[in-house]
Prior knowledge:
The chain is α/β, with parallel strands linked by helices. The chain is 32% helix and 27% strand. Strands 1-7-6-4-5 form a 5-stranded mixed sheet, with helices on both faces. It is globular.
Amino acid sequence: MSKIRSIIRGVGxxxxxxxxxxxxxxxxxxxxxxxxxxxxxxxxxxxxxxxEMTSDLALAAAKQxxxxxxxxxxxxxxxIMATTTPDHTFxxxxxxxxxxxxxxxxxxxxxxAVCSGFVYGLATADSLLKSGGYRRAIVIGxxxxxxxxxxxxxxxxxxxxxxxxxxVLEAEESNGELSDRGIITSHLRSDGRYRCKLFVDxxxxxSQQVGHIRMxxxxxxxxxxxxxxxxxxxxxxQAGLKSEDIDWFVPHQAxxxxxxxxxxxxxxxxxxxxxxxxxHANTSAASIPLALNELYQSGRLQAGQLxxxxxxGGGFTWGSTLVRW
Length: 325
Ligand code: UT7
């Protein structure tokens, strides 16, 4: 049976030049390099320059992904940008990226699912490509979380960083076989009963201010491993795969302990986990494509390998994607 698969043709990433170390942070708030490393695995994070907006980061990542895909702006008819830190309340930052890339056809919009934004964006693009209405998409995860971090709150300010990652997807005819390349399956979930566990205390409808990140860290941690593992089990079951079949586990990079705990629970060996949280910290929607970009650049990612993405974030939202490279 002929089916459409969304294949990944290109991947790109961008990190702002400025690096903020744990040591520097310990001079700003009552914390230490030792505490941050032990509880989170984070050593440093990148911070956008004053004149760098989320769309600038997104544009750099998207350009690299597009270059590597061998495609041109005229080939792209869909731009989805997952972000919690758009340049403006509206228009969507995706249209800024669309314009700066010179894409004047198709559709562009932002996606708000916080740290799960990239897997939500991938699943949405995959559905639109499968509908036959679109042929090629750029899916971006981009954040300047430094703009909504409360730099006096040690329980959150040590956790986040800025960055962007992107992939170019193309609809390709396939036989629907498990061995065919492209997105095999996606699972998205949310449960709004937990929306007060991780949120921003502002917005156009409430304070008319941007607000700051507020989090009950321990509560989020408690839910993370079980929720993520359940969606991964669903993905594997639907695809008829076992955890041993996964070649690369590319998780949302929130906390090294969550990454390791999830991998252990689903039975993925440590050498298959792609870890960037140490250098990037939590870049929300950008963390998965940035980690994928690191894996790609390392030369270890081979055609035919099975890659698993997963994320969980504010909402709560969570989800997973299985891709044949
Ligand atoms: O992207 C998805 C969203 N986010 C997450 O997935 C984050 C999930 N949660 C976590 O990663 C962890 O809960 C944190 C890293 C945020 C915190 O680690 P924890 O082991 O859960 O620590 P805790 O919140 O239980 O706090 C332990 C202690 C507290 O002091 P007391 O009450 O025991 O005296 C905190 O006040 O650590 C204190 N503390 C700190 N100490 C030094 C909290 N933040 C800091 C800090 N430096 N930065």
